[in-house]
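Handout, section B. The chain below has 157 residues.
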Amino acid sequence: MSVRHVVLITGPPCAGKTTLARALAVQRPGLVVDRDLIARTLGSRAGHDHGRRITQRAEMRLRAELDRIAEAEDVTAYVVRCLPYPDERERLAARLRAELVLLDPGMVECLRRAGVDHRPEGTGDAIRQWYARAGLVPTVPSTTAERPDQFRRSQAW
């Protein structure tokens, strides 16, 4: 009997996507698919700003892993992607046959986390761009990743 459990975790930079993916993988062991984690396996010493060449290679590996997950019948995976546009989130969730989770702690909180975490230059701009593209009200926190049970889920596919 095959077991398929795939969760697509989306949201702005500094929303807590990787933190949530790791917490869920502890609760129900599975593969955490995250471009930053892949970049580190390719030799990047940076936490988030890996340089163009490593970022491109990591993205290629991530996409190959997504293809594998989409076809697999026996897989447990937690996929981390920003995906500001709702239609992009829905398309990828459908392709992966994944439960979709949108983390949205609010722009102010993401900016605060970026500062506390000493994220690379440009992270604040990336956060603001994500909210502008997503069309979400940036001052109202709706979700946090402080606890794995505090997030918004959509239907499972």
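Note. The beta strands are 4-10, 31-33, 75-81, 99-102, 152-153. Compare this with the example in section A.
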